[in-house]
Amino acid sequence: MSGVAMPLTFHGRARAALSDRTLHEALDRATAQLRSRRSTALDSLEHSDYVRDVARRARMTALRNLGALLREFESRLTENGCRVHWADTADDANRIIVRIAAEARVRRIAKSKSMVSEETHLNAALERAGLAVVETDLGEYVTQLAASRPSHIILPIVHMTREQVGRLLQEQLGVPYSDDPQVLAGYARAKLRAEFLRADMGITGANIGVAATGTICLVTNEGNGRMVTTLPRVHVVLMGIEKLVATMADLDAVLKVLARSATGQQLTAYTTLVRGPRRAGDACGPESMHVVLLDNGRTRLLAGESAEILGCIRCGACLNVCPVYRNIGGHAYGDTYPGPVGAVVTPGLRGIGNWAALPDASSLCGACRDICPVRLDIPRMLIAMRQEAVSCTPQPAWLRFGMRAFAWTAARPPMYRIVARLGGAVLRQRARNGWIHRAPGPLGAWTTCRDLRAPARRSFERQWRSRTEARHDRA
Amino acid sequence: MTARDAILARVDRAAAAGRVPGVPVGAAPPDERDRHDVLARFVRELRALGVEVFVEASDGDVRARVQAHVSGHRTVSWAAARLPYGTATVVSDGIPWDAAYADQASADVGLTGCDAAIADTGSLVLLSGPGAPRSTSLLPPVHVAIVRRDDIVSTAAEVFSHAADRMAQSACCTFITGPSRTADIELSLTIGVHGPGRLVVVVGP
User: Fold this and answer.
1) CA separation for the pair A117, A111 (Å, rounded)
2) CB contact B30 to A (< 8 Å)
3) With contact defined as beta carbons under 8 Å apart, do A51 and A233 qualify?
4) Could you read off the pLDDT tens digit of each residue along chain B, which spans 205 residues?
5) Contact B17 A67 (CB under 8 A)
6) pLDDT at position A449, please?
7) How many CA atoms are closer than 13 Å to the CA of A450, on its beta-carbon side?
8) A48-299 — its CATH code?
9) ipTM confidence
10) Rounded to a whole number, what is the distance in Å from the CA of A135 to chain B's nearest CA?
11) Which member of A181, A225, A291, A410 lies 3.0 to 4.6 Å from A220 by CB, making a disulfide possible if both were Cys?
């Protein structure tokens, strides 16, 4: 994707993605594997339904008591020696982090993977402030070198083949070409090891925060999350205000489903539970630790029909089962969070105005709801988002008039019968062997990619009426 | 109004709208797990993760096993008092636990104890503290961990409830479940990205 300008609209981006063969192959391979790994890990878990219910309860309870939990979390963090900052907007969060860096005379920053920092465009803000920042998750590091963005919540470069990664590292790092993932990871290890050792500041997100203990939980497989919370002298956590659970028991409930849903592991290689900066006698860990709590549209979501989406634990499972995501990939969604969850979260956080097309990026098949470890009813929320989109974006005059005319007609049965009979006759005239290849007016959108069956000679309503009459006669 | 107060006021108002569904949860299913086979389960899970695991019968056997893994290799290890079974005595070419990071990173092996172990997931639980820094299990390419048999429990939930006080005393608790890994490139499993690519667990009596 590097250097290629992305089309401006969702439909334009989706169309471009649909004609990208390499992307399709990469997506097919990865999502199929992730689906089967997840089902081995979660569905085969003993009492998996109960485990999912408990995880859902942990998240929903936290959202219902969010105000109290945030206050408790703040108190515990402070007792643990952390500084707590609150940010209304993405810009506020970035400004706060730049200021922390300036006050601590930070020059080099190592970051572990954080979706919320993608949401705020933190890297660009840090670079504008003259700070050197490097992504340390292998996939994120590759996207940074490619000047691109992640296309999947847990697999940032799912859209790239190993050959593409090999050529990129060859160009950017001056290393010999290889398409062996083990060799490529070795290049990144050597390069990033030096960055970890000289970074002044580590920046992470938070997979989960625990209100009762002021704990920040980070899950990583590579160990970069451990590096950036262990070696640099300052640690900054940037997290959305919704990522809390009440207790360590609730944390356990979420951890039980998170890795299983994401990668099919029981737990990720490293689950790091941080409780503040280094303590007396410690030989490592940051000297100071800051937690930035970000709103950026979350309270608006919490007040609306789609509040439930804030319970998302960002496992990415809904992406892998979504027929739309599997065909267009993550970049087409145009923002940080792709897939079914993104189609709700993006308009929810950014406002429906510029993102009205996203809730339509779904066939409402319900696969996302079935796979979700915390049982989020994403189709319901997509429909609510569609209603919001219709009510606050101007609809074309013909559509508004057409819907009003339909409503008027449908409320008057004799009139409805006449119109239905006329319309049926017109369509049947265009049909050949019972199929219409090119339909008139707005129906033309249907027939651009499939045929339309000609309406039956006797309408459903007429058939129904004669059936019930026959039944009455028998009685 | 500060950002804090504004956000909390919005959260409270939003919560009052009552849009978050409640979650009725049925009774917990009966726990039919056999708690006598935690060691066997632990070993099985570790092997599935690609961890080299050894179960030793005596203190001396543990020391001999550890010695076999550290002799001839530069080893950074936890403080002697933090290593069980007197294992510190077998480290000859040692880098102290509080050495500069660059020195620790140049070691071949990191030798640590372990505060608890979880059989169900094959996880080691390490609490940071004086003499037991996180860097030892992170910077060298090989991590050798010594586990006392009595410290093995079945589930993470048991660690959270039994070790709550010790966890509160520590700045960082790390669950280590297998060697460092990634699948970022075409989902192909790659071992040893940033953390140790080799994990050896020695279980003592």
Assistant:
1) 10
2) no
3) no
4) 899 999 999 999 998 888 999 888 888 888 776 667 899 999 999 999 999 999 999 999 999 999 999 999 999 999 999 999 999 999 987 899 999 999 999 999 999 999 999 999 999 999 999 999 999 999 999 999 999 999 999 999 999 999 999 999 999 999 999 999 998 898 889 999 999 999 999 999 9
5) no
6) 84
7) 4
8) 3.40.50.10420
9) 0.96
10) 13
11) A225
Query: What tens digit of pLDDT does each residue of A271-285 get?
Result: 999 999 999 999 999
CB contact under 8 A, B193 and A189: yes
Which residues in chain A have their CB less than 8 angstroms from residue B191's CB? Answer: 182
State the Cα–Cα distance between residues B166 and B160, nearest whole angstrom.
10
* Region of residue A263 (phi > 0: left; psi between -120 and 50: alpha; otherwise: beta): alpha
State the span(s) of chain A assigned CATH 3.40.50.10420.
Answer: 48-299
What are the pLDDT digits (tens) for B67-126? 999 999 999 999 999 999 999 999 987 899 999 999 999 999 999 999 999 999 999 999
Name all domains of chain B by residue range, CATH numbers in brackets: 36-204 (3.40.50.10420)
